[in-house]
Design goal:
With 228 residues, the protein is an all-alpha fold. It has 10 helices and no strands.
């Protein structure tokens, strides 16, 4: 008897299970552990069933990373809406975004790292680039009351994110102590619960405060010169 053709709803449910399985494997073992055999074993499927749902393992990892970004963006949108309702200052919005990003990366370090490992493999498709851009949109929205001009907002969002990303990458790799007080900057344990997460957040708070102070001073100076 011929096997019944799967409905679109069945295929979509399988796709979602496949993506979640990939995310779980990445969380446990890293991006390189995502294979057709590994996914099939985790789901109890045949290897062939994997390819009826999605065209390649590369596509699976891209979808898994996109799901991570979407989850982070949704959390940030809720957080920022609450701060707006409370009348929080722009700096509070920016600090909250920074803290949420650090919490996301240290809670799921291998999933966070997979996003950048996968990006190094080549230009992602437009839909994925749009997902990445949504993160910058949230940060740009928080920075815009300070920067004013859209081009300054865009540049500042990317500069601040790059600085936070560098701080986080150094900490997760255990290298932050080499450029800071070793006692005050212990490594964040990538294999379990974050160690000294409070210290990492303190470094990030200082970085954000310093960046915003410099940005505001530079913009004030520019406005003063243009007013002369």
């Amino acid at each position: 008897m011929a096997r019944a053709k799967r409905s679109a709803a069945d295929l979509e449910a399988m796709r979602r299970r496949l993506i979640e399985a990939a995310r779980a494997i990445i969380a446990e073992h890293g991006l390189s552990a995502v294979t057709a055999r590994g996914l099939a074993a985790k789901l109890g499927w045949s290897v062939g069933a994997i390819y009826t749902v999605i065209p390649s393992i590369d596509a699976v990892t891209l979808e898994a990373n996109a799901a991570e970004l979407e989850e982070l963006c949704e959390a940030l949108e809720v957080q920022q809406a609450e701060l707006t309702a409370a009348g929080a200052a722009p700096s509070a919005h920016i600090h909250a975004i920074g803290s949420a990003y650090l919490n996301f990366a240290t809670a799921r370090p291998r999933n966070w790292a997979a996003i950048f490992e996968r990006d190094a493999e080549g230009e992602p498709p437009p839909w994925y680039q749009a997902r990445q851009a949504s993160l910058f949109t949230i940060l740009e929205r928080a920075l815009s009351p300070i920067t004013g001009a859209p081009h300054v907002t865009r540049r500042s969002a990317r500069a601040l994110w790059a600085a936070l990303h560098g701080l986080l990458a150094l900490s997760l790799a255990g290298h932050l102590a080499r450029v800071a007080d070793a006692a005050a900057a212990p490594k964040v344990d990538i294999s379990g619960a974050p160690a000294a997460l409070e210290d990492l957040h303190q470094h990030a708070q200082e970085l954000i405060d310093t960046y915003l102070a410099g940005l505001e001073a530079r913009l004030a100076k520019a406005r003063g010169i243009s007013a002369q």
